[in-house]
Design a protein that fits this description.
The structure holds two protein chains of two kinds. Chain A is of the alpha/beta class. Chain A folds into three domains: about 1-75, Roll (Ubiquitin-like (UB roll)), CATH 3.10.20.740; about 125-205, Alpha-Beta Plaits (2-Layer Sandwich); about 210-560, Rossmann fold (3-Layer(aba) Sandwich). In chain A, about 35% of the residues lie in helices and about 15% in strands. Chain A has helices spanning about 20-25, 75-90, 110-115, 150-160, 195-200, 210-215, 250-260, 265-290, 300-310, 325-340, 355-360, 380-390, 410-415, 420-435, 475-485, 515-530, 540-550, 555-560; strands at about 1-5, 10-15, 50, 60, 70-75, 140, 165-170, 175-180, 205, 225-230, 265, 295, 345-350, 365-370, 370, 375-380, 455-460, 465-470, 490-495. In chain A, the strands form six sheets. A five-stranded mixed β-sheet of chain A has the order 2-1-5-3-4, sandwiched between helices. In chain A, a hairpin with a 6-residue loop joins β7 and β8 (about 175-180). The longest helix of chain A has 22 residues, at about 265-290. The radius of gyration of chain A is 25 Å and the shape is globular. Chain B is an alpha/beta fold. Chain B folds into five domains: about 1-160, Glutaredoxin, CATH 3.40.30; about 205-395, NADH-ubiquinone oxidoreductase 51kDa subunit (Rossmann fold, 3-Layer(aba) Sandwich), CATH 3.40.50; about 405-490, Ubiquitin-like (UB roll) (Roll), CATH 3.10.20; about 495-590, de novo design (two linked rop proteins) (Up-down Bundle), CATH 1.20.1440; about 605-660, Alpha-Beta Plaits, CATH 3.30.70. Chain B is built from 26 helices and 19 strands. A five-stranded mixed β-sheet of chain B has the order 2-1-3-4-5, with helices on one face. In chain B, α8 (about 195-205) runs parallel beside α12 (about 265-280), α8 (about 195-205) packs across α15 (about 375-390) and α9 (about 205-215) packs antiparallel against α10 (about 230-235). The longest helix of chain B has 22 residues, at about 540-560. The chains are: A alpha/beta, B alpha/beta. The interface of A and B includes residues 122, 150 and 174 of A.
Chain lengths: ~575, ~650
């Protein structure tokens, strides 16, 4: 540890650490628009500048390492004036339509302007004009609101390894665009929405389906059925001032009913169903010498990534649809039959932590007889907007339970929300299928945590099964390259598009604090810890579904309703 | 200092011993080349000190070609064939006196070489007739003859080293430029080339090479002036299997063409310097990052790399000393910011040319994360002689903290535009008025912009300062890469600032906010100052004054906070002109006029009623219908309608229209 002086106070710092991280630890806030934790600093926004004794210019604290005896002043008039000028310059090229902006009240630029006391239009002149790109089913790009902090570009390239967008042109003409300034829909974008999650302004946002959903709710003949993804119940609370990781499951269910949804189901139920199919598929592949390693298919960004960049791995991907699509499919077949509702009258809404799910729902493969499995996907953030629009006060609601017959879920299904969770759930069931005994959960704990690549060997019935859970597609690429080079010890790989899994999805409440993501993860594992039903195969509703309708995993009906196939998108 | 420049036509020292060590290296050497260079009889021929036939040298650098040297060359070749004259034609680079291009030099057997100016295609035949057929030096268009002890002088012909353009120069870097065949390695070697590299590789340790450069006091010629020796030492001290050396030939300042001239005129000097540098830091791969707009330079570099490889002076196991070096030419797309070293590294890596924060400095973590040294062309061109002659030879001239020479590109309102190399410490007055020949058309000197857009302008009172890094910074300019743009009294300084701001805001990479957004607003503020009230709408007049109020504040923040050198120096053109020409700004702002008469929108046209004969030409031609008057009576310009195009001035036969 070394000593540095910050604002006349001596503090400890680690050698080589950036000044900004020391300031954060000491509770000294300097603003930044471009900093991303764990990535090499880009130093683009210059808002975090501080004064250092003996140095002539202002120094960007995000990109400058501390040194013994360094004397730093963070809020001198010169530094504040610089920050304020930078924000004023950004405002001079901003559309100024906060009242109409999806980020109104939740915008970093707006907050900075307020914090720094921007009260006059000191600089004015021409504003850059760009077309808004609404081509993607998942993401809307409005370059007019872009401050070119570059975070989206870096996340897309450095975390996801996709590089769908980059800077084009120079100087004040510079903007961020997919290749050849074409629509995001025809780009290599995998719709994960990590760019939306880091965007400080309204330049990137989800393609909203709120209107379709409210229209359906107001439609007299539609039966509007809602399902919600496993991670949503532990993140929605943040939108309403609860601390990260608060589970609002019951209250949320009550809210859905107040909003007018006719049935409330839990996607964790179909996660259990996915496990039944996927575990059976894995067992079959291992027994019959099928393509290995098998890779999970529940994360739609990952699917498009493989189709686009690694089509040679398509046979490795499990043919199971994602839980969202499985439930949608079952609702419009089994449930519709059972309830005597014509499938076209059903309007399936799903609440997802994800923007890629919007893309997935629109895939032509995800329909039966021309009727889509899912009609509209809302992100967690959109759900919060819907709740606010309807003036619901979550604190006054009493918790309620989900509807039958898809209301019961195991906590294994709930674990789908976190990286390593699908693997853990699948292993619990596969172990049971192969040995007839229940797996001790303690044995597979190495699959937990926020590391990008987690690997583990597990002995099932004398068979050494190599498994890995990766999150963040940059990490997936590393693993795929190893397999291409001949790595053979892996049998089953879980891939989550977003780092950490769905709890950090592109549709979740905005957060810049990695601790929030950690708290969300912890909440899911606590739910599992305290649950009585912890395995998918133990779910009575699942067992009944097979008995009444599907017969057995990988059976004929399953293939028709729950499985699909993919094809190369390589250009 | 006259003896230092190579226009004294005896060639630099060729060291036979040094050469012998090279020749011993196995059979790698082309036996023919080895033989020729080892023979005392052939050596003078290679150096063109002995010739049995006439030699015609044509300056075909980019400046020469621009002035028509290509056509001249065609005429010469055709003339020689048609007249069956067995003369050799050699294409050389730019000798520096760009204003006199195309320059042709002719050397008759046994006689000294004579340089002629402005030999355009139409004048070529007469010149060749006179010398080649009649053996007469024509009386006109002579620049001078090259001095040489071995050759007979022409009577009555001045020496080129006494020419006012060349006499005050100290040509070290440019020694061979315009003299030698740039793509003939034997000639380069015969003139003492590769002595430095051979010495370094065969006799010196890496540390000794770094030490020598450090002791010489050589500082980076690309801008900042960081000690080259220290830079090398830092990279040498950083452990690493793979290291890189990069030559920055991305010369982007408007009005700068030093690097281009060196590469076109003497590319082997650069290769040698680069090889020494790579050896010193332990790099086995070197890149030359050069803008694609320099096609001739690229062609010559490729050819020289091929020749050096063929002779084993580049490539695998150079001189059997276990030193490998590959040189890769990387073409840049001509972005100004790619001259900044971290942006340049990004560009080589295939990324967008945007700077990244330092530290880590490239000498620790540069290209592909490996220790990397980046030097510009002129810096590297200094290296071979420093090694060959020792650090004390180099640091014997210059000022206390700036040693050696500096090449400047003179352009703008100056009589002799061109490339000059002077000892550090030479007065700016000397450069502009002696070497450059002063201001054309009897106009007054107003200012000189040094260091391109990042630099600053100097005025009358600075002319006596001695050129070195510190002195230039003291007066608000900087060495930069060495462009000198001279301005006369007809130049409007607000317009100049506008020009540079426009350049910078277009060339900013767009990464950091103060540079991207700030320079754009600064340009707009300047544009408003020079906009006529007629073209203002809405709140424009208010914005004009508001802009002026915040110009200084904005400049300070951009300087204070920008990421790279481009941004940090972006406000310099405004701050510099504002500092020395405040009155001119005030005339634009308060009196709404441009004293230099450049900003067209601020010009006021009036018709002198005494001179006007009422011919109606002006009224007929005025595109704005702003001129009223009856035929044969004096006309009148309605100021509010006038758009300031100047058509009335052009068409008036009585010179009755005046401009203020």
């Amino acid at each position: 540890m070394i000593n540095i002086t910050v604002n006349d106070r001596v503090v400890k710092a680690n050698p080589g650490e950036y000044i900004l991280s020391v300031l954060k630890r000491e509770g000294i806030r300097v603003p930044t628009l471009c900093n991303l934790p764990d990535l090499f600093p880009s130093g683009a926004c210059r808002l975090c500048v501080v004064e250092i004794e003996g140095m002539s210019g202002l120094i960007p604290s995000c990109a400058y390492p501390v040194a013994e005896g360094m004397k730093i002043k963070t809020h001198t008039p010169r530094a504040i004036r610089a920050r304020k000028t930078i924000v004023e310059l950004l405002c001079a090229n901003h559309p100024d339509d906060c009242l109409f902006c999806v980020r109104n009240g939740n915008c970093d630029l707006q907050n900075l302007a307020e914090e720094l006391g921007v009260r006059e239009r000191r600089y004015s002149g021409n504003k850059s004009e760009h077309k808004i790109d609404t081509s993607s089913p998942s993401i809307v790009r409005d370059p007019n609101k872009c401050v070119l902090c570059g975070k989206c570009v870096r996340v897309c390239e450095e975390i996801q390894g996709v590089s769908a967008i980059d800077f084009v042109k120079r100087g004040s003409l510079a903007y961020i665009s997919p290749e050849f300034n074409e629509g995001l829909n025809v780009s290599t974008c995998i719709n994960c929405g990590q760019c939306v999650a880091v965007c400080p302004t309204g330049a990137l946002r989800e393609q909203s389906s709120l209107k379709e959903v409210t229209d359906a709710l107001n439609h007299p003949e539609k039966v509007v059925i809602i399902q919600h993804a496993p991670s949503v119940s532990v993140t929605l609370g943040e939108e309403f001032g609860l601390k990260s990781g608060s589970d609002v499951m019951g209250i949320m269910t009550a809210a859905f009913r107040r909003l007018g949804f006719d049935r409330v189901f839990d996607t964790s139920f179909s996660a259990d169903l996915t496990i039944m199919e996927e575990a059976a598929e894995l067992v079959e592949r291992i027994k019959t010498g099928g393509t290995l390693p098998m890779m999970t298919s529940c994360s739609p960004g990952w699917i498009k990534y493989v189709e686009q960049f690694y089509p040679e791995f398509i046979p490795n991907i499990s043919s199971c649809k994602s839980p969202q699509q499985m439930l949608g499919s079952i609702i419009k077949s089994y449930y519709a039959e059972k309830q005597g509702i014509e499938p076209y009258r059903i309007f399936n809404v799903s609440i997802m932590p994800c923007t890629a799910k919007k893309f997935e729902a629109e895939r032509p493969e995800m329909a039966l007889d021309g009727i889509p499995n899912i009609d509209a996907v809302l992100t967690t953030r959109e759900l919060a907007r819907l709740i606010r629009m309807r003036g619901l006060d979550l604190r006054s609601l009493e918790p309620e339970g989900a509807d039958t017959p898809f209301g019961e879920r195991s906590s294994a299904g709930k674990l789908f929300g976190v990286s390593g969770g699908v693997m853990e759930a699948a292993l619990r069931t596969a172990y049971f299928m192969l040995t007839g005994n229940e797996l001790e959960v303690e044995r597979i704990k190495p699959l937990r945590g926020l590391d990008g690549i987690k690997e583990f060997q597990v002995n099932i019935a004398g068979l050494e099964v190599g498994v890995a859970a990766v999150s963040g597609l940059g990490n997936a690429r590393k693993l795929l390259e190893q397999i291409k080079k001949g790595r053979k010890d892996l049998h089953f790989i879980e891939v989550m598009t977003c780092p950490g899994g769905c709890i950090n999805g592109g549709g979740q409440p905005y957060t810049t604090n990695p601790e929030n993501v950690r708290a969300r993860m912890k909440a899911l594992y606590e739910i599992d810890r305290d649950a009585t039903l912890r395995t998918s195969h133990g779910n009575k509703d699942i067992q009944r579904l097979y008995k009444e309708y599907l017969e057995k995993p990988l059976g004929h009906k399953s293939h028709q309703l729950l499985h699909t196939h993919y094809k190369s998108r390589k250009k | 200092m006259q003896s230092n420049h190579n226009l004294v036509y005896s060639g630099a020292e060729f060291d036979q011993d040094c050469w012998a060590t090279v020749c011993q290296v196995k059979n790698r050497f082309d036996p023919d080349v080895r033989e020729r260079l080892s023979s005392p009889e052939v050596l003078p021929e290679i150096r063109h000190l002995k010739t049995s036939h006439p030699i015609v040298y044509v300056g075909t650098g980019t400046c020469g070609l621009g002035a028509g040297a290509g056509k001249t060359l065609q005429v010469i070749r055709k003339y020689l064939t048609e007249n069956q004259i067995a003369a050799e034609v050699i294409e050389v680079g730019c000798i520096g006196l760009c204003v006199e291009e195309p320059i042709v030099e002719i050397q008759m057997p046994g006689r000294q070489r004579v340089a002629f100016r402005k030999v355009t295609a139409d004048k070529t035949v007469a010149l060749l007739d006179s010398i080649l057929k009649n053996g007469q030096i024509p009386a006109e268009n002579i620049i001078g003859q090259h001095r040489s002890a071995e050759l007979k002088a022409w009577l009555g012909v001045n020496y080129i080293d006494e020419h006012p353009f060349f006499a005050p120069q100290t040509r070290w870097v440019l020694a061979n430029c315009g003299i030698v065949n740039p793509v003939d390695i034997t000639e380069y070697i015969a003139r003492g080339g590769y002595r430095g590299m051979i010495t370094a590789i065969s006799q010196m340790t890496r540390t000794e090479v770094c030490r020598t450069i450090l002791d010489s006091g050589l500082r980076g010629r690309g801008g900042g002036g960081f000690s080259t020796g220290r830079k090398w030492q830092m990279a040498l001290d950083t452990p690493g299997e793979q290291k890189y050396f990069i030559c920055n030939a991305d010369e982007g300042d408007p009005g700068a063409f030093m690097d281009r001239a060196v590469i076109e005129g003497d590319p082997f000097r650069l290769l040698e310097g680069l090889a020494i540098g790579a050896y010193a830091i332990g790099a086995s791969k070197a890149y030359i990052y050069i803008r694609a707009e320099y096609p001739l330079a690229i062609t010559r570099l490729k050819e020289t790399i091929r020749q050096a490889k063929q002779l084993g002076l580049l490539g695998h196991n150079i001189l059997d000393k276990g030193f490998n070096l590959d040189i890769i030419i990387k073409k840049g797309a001509g972005a100004f910011v790619c001259g900044e070293e971290t942006a340049l590294i990004n560009s080589i890596e295939g990324k967008r040319g945007m700077p990244r924060p330092r530290p880590p400095y490239p000498s620790v973590s540069g290209l592909f994360g490996k220790p990397t040294v980046i030097n510009n062309v002129e810096t590297l061109a200094n290296i071979p002689e420093i090694i060959a002659r020792g650090p004390n030879w180099f640091n014997a001239i210059g000022t206390e903290r700036s040693k050696g020479t500096k090449v400047f590109a003179l352009s703008g309102k100056i009589n002799r535009t061109g490339l000059v190399e002077v000892a550090m410490g030479t007065q700016i007055r000397d450069i502009i008025f002696n070497i450059g020949g002063g201001i054309p058309n009897g106009k007054k000197f107003k200012a000189v912009q040094i260091g391109g857009p990042s630099g600053g302008c100097l005025i009358d009172q600075h002319l006596d300062i001695e050129v070195d890094y510190e002195n230039l910074i003291k007066v608000g300019a900087m060495m930069g890469s060495g462009g000198m743009v001279v301005m006369d009294e007809g130049t409007c300084m607000v317009d100049v600032a506008k020009f540079f701001m426009d350049f910078i805001q277009r060339e900013s990479c767009g990464k950091c906010i103060p540079c991207r957004e700030g320079t754009r607003r600064m340009l707009e503020i300047l544009q408003r100052i020079t906009r006529s009230r007629r073209n203002e709408t809405g709140n424009d007049a208010l914005e004009r004054f508001k802009g002026i109020m915040y110009l200084n504040r904005l400049s300070q923040v951009i300087k204070d906070t920008s990421l790279c050198g481009l941004g940090k120096s972006a406000p310099n053109p405004v701050l510099g002109t504002l500092r020395w020409f405040r009155a001119e700004y005030e005339a634009h702002i308060f009196e709404r006029r441009c004293p230099a008469g450049v900003c067209t929108e601020l010009l006021h046209y009036e018709i002198n009623t005494e001179k006007c004969i009422g011919c109606t030409l002006c009224a007929k031609n005025c595109p704005a219908g702003a001129i009223l008057g009856n035929p044969k009576t004096p006309h009148y310009i309605v100021a509010d309608k006038c758009i300031g195009c100047g058509t009335c001035v052009d068409v008036c036969r009585s010179k009755a229209v005046t401009v203020k």
